[in-house]
Amino acid sequence: MLPAVVLWMAVAGCGDDGPGGSGTDKNSTDSESGTDDENGTGDENGTDSEDGTVFVIEARADDWDNAFPLGYVEAQFHKDDDDYYLIAGSRFENGAFRLEFSSMVDERFLYPIMGAGAPPWLKVSNPDAKVREVEFFGLNEKGGYRVAILKYTTFDTHDHDFESGSDGYFLYADSAVTLIGSTSEFDAEYGITAEYEYNVSLKKGWNVVYQHIEIEGMTIKLTLSNKNPGGLKWKVK
Fold this sequence. Notes:
Blueprint: E1 47-48, E2 54-60, E3 72-80, E4 83-91, E5 96-102, E6 111-112, E7 122-124, E8 130-133, E9 135-139, E10 146-153, E11 165-173, E12 177-187, E13 192-202, E14 205-216, E15 219-225, E16 233-236
Parallel strand pairs: 13-15
Antiparallel strand pairs: 1-2, 2-5, 3-4, 3-9, 6-8, 7-12, 8-11, 9-10, 10-11, 10-16, 11-14, 12-13, 14-15
């Protein structure tokens, strides 16, 4: 079994929910927010607008036509189907979508970056920083039901414990923070060595962090950094 993905990703989402604009409640019915951007253009791994007011993802999902017919994409701080906070929404047309994240996020929906505390090998520059990962969902044409998950990844399946590859995670941080460190663990029962290397720098606002897994024989190396390893695509699961 591979090590846990990212230390702060163990916490789940909570807050207001529903299709619509950033932070709208669950009774809203407009899922088309974030489709027009006059401040700048985005790309598939996200860019800040020129004036810094929005973070834009403009992408096309791979293998979208093999999924249940989708009409909308939503980006959420997600806990469960009845407890989530909407960051942005977009029409999903022929696999294409465009999401705009506001540069301001309600801090009530963020969590301490280290949770119960950092392991001894990991240096955290700002332990008081709070962060949250965004999750992406595909909705049916009427915009009422989640029928798919969207991932920015090189993997073809959810279960990739014994595959090399990469994932991209979109995070909001309320302040700048770095996480630097490395360690190695040996599992005598399975004869597997797990190596961890963290070199992450988060700015205040929206960030993309990449997890790369490399498997060679009985050694699994997990690297977490801001460097895009390449080959990632948006995929519908």
